Amino acid sequence: MASASEELWILGIDMTKFGKHPDKDIVDLASEAVQGALADAGVTMKDIGIIGAGNLMMAMAPTGQMVQKQLGQTGIPVYNVSNACATGATALRVAAMAVKAGETDMGLAFGVEKLAGAGLLAGGSRSADSNTWTPHGRYGAVAAVDGRIGTEIMPGVFAQIGLEYGHKYGGTSFELFAKIAEKNHSHSTLNPKAAYTKKMSLDEIMNDVMIAYPNTRPMCSANCDGAAAAVIVSGSKLKTLSKEQQKRAVKISASILTTDPFEEACQILPNVNTLTRNAANQAYEQAGVGPADLDLVELHDCFATAELVHYDNLMLCEEGGAADFFNSGATWRDGTTPVNVSGGLESKGHPIAATGIANIWEVAQHLRGEGGDRQIEGAKVGLAHVIGLGSACGVHILEKSAA
Amino acid sequence: MAKQIPLVDYLVLGDDPHLVAHECTSCGARFFDRRNACASCGNTAFKPADVATTGEVRTFTIVSFAAPGIPVPYVAAVVDCEGTSVRGNLINVTPDAEHVSTGMKVRLATEVIGTDDEGTEAVGFGFEPLGG
Known about the structure:
heterodimer; A: alpha/beta; Peroxisomal Thiolase, Chain A, domain 1; nine-stranded mixed beta sheet; 13 helices; 17% strand; globular; B: mainly beta; CATH 2.40.50; five-stranded mixed β-barrel
C-alpha cells in the first residue's frame, strides 16, 4: 500500500479530439477518453480505486457515476468536482491525493465538457431591468451592472489583465498580443487533436472580429467539445507492473493547487498573477527543478493577453520581461522554452473541464517520445498550468521515466 | 427635479457624488459589497470610508462584443483612486485605443441610466478624462 512519501505516476492518459461533436454527449466523450486512458495504462476499471470526475457546465449531474454506468460500476468512491477552468486539474488532484494518502494505489481522473457554440462566457448577469428600481444583490444594484460598471465577460477581464501588465512593465501592444495568437495557431497545425489546425497570419488575426480590445476572436480560447482522462498509480504499485508500463509511465514530480490570496484590488479585477506565482514556486520546490530545466510548457492561454502574463508568473522570464522574452522567439516550438506546442486554448481549444488533463496529456506525449510530428526532441521535463477564474491555479511538473 | 436612486448602494448622490467603501477598522482594506469579515485580516468591524473621486486608469478594455442588450462599444476599466481600486466604465471619451490609455487621469462622473414607471431616475457612475 502507498505511503505519504509515495511517488505519483501517470500510468495511462488520453484525450478525445477537441472540436464539434454534435452526436456525442458528455457520457460518450468522457467514456471515450477514459477507455483510452485505461487501454494506454494497460488496466481496467476493476483496478481503479477512486474516480475524480470534472465537469463545469453540467455540474449538478453525477458525471462520474454516469461514466461508471457506461464503463463499469465497481462501487468505488467518486468525487464529482467543479472548479471553473481549473476543474480538470482539480479532478486529477483528487485522484492524486487519494493515492498519496494511501487510500488506493490506482486512481482515475477525467474532465469533460460540451461547449461548442457556447458563445461568450459570463457577462450574463444582465437580466431584464424591472419596471421600478428595486435594490437587490450584494451591491444593492437597481439594474444589471455588467457593461455599466466595467465588464464581466472573460475576453474583457483578461484583456485588462494583459494591459495592466503592459502598464506596469511596458513593451506590450495590440500587435504583440496578436503575435502570441499567431504562434499558437501555427503550433496547432501539427496537432491532429486540435479543434483548429489552420495557420493564421498576423494580419488575419489583427483584422478579425474585435471582441474586447486588444483580444480579437482568434486571440480568445476556442469553445469546443472534448474530454481527457488519466490513470494515476503509486510508485510502489508501478514497480509490480511490466517493464513496458514502467518505461511509458510519466512521473508527477509536483502537483499543486492554489487560490488567490488577498491583495488590494483583487476583488475589483481578479488577480491571476500571485496565485500562479505561488503555485509555480511550490511546484518547483516540490519537484526540485527550476524554470530553466523545462523542455516544454503548456500554460493557460485562455486569451492571448493571458499567455503573456503567465510567462512571468511561471518565472520563465525575469520579472517584467515577458514582452522581451516573447520577442526573442523563446516560446515558439523551436525556441528555448516552447510554450503551447499543442496550439493552446486559442487553437487546440478549451472544453473547460478537459483542459487541465489535456495539457498534461500533451506534455506526457513529448516525455514519452510519442509526440509525432510536433515532438520536442529529447524532452525530459515539462510543466502544465491552468487557471480557473475565481480563482484556482493548478500546476503540474512531469518528468520522463528513467526506466 | 426627478427623484433619483443610485445604481448601486455604494454610490452616494447629491451635490458631491462619490463612492463609499466598507473599510476594515483593523487593516484598512476596503470592500464595496456587504461584509461578514475582512478577507485580508479576518476582523469583523468596518466603518464607511469615502473614496477619492479622482484617479488614474490602471487598465482598461474596449468591449465590442457583449451579451444582448448591452450597448457597445464601451470602455471598462480599473481606476486607482488614490490607493483604492475601483471598477467602472470610462465615459465622455471616444471609445477607441487612440483616446484611451493606461495612466490617464480621470474623475468620477454620474449619468442617468434610465427612468422607471414611477418617474424615478437611476443614476450610475463612470470616470471621465480630467481636464479634457
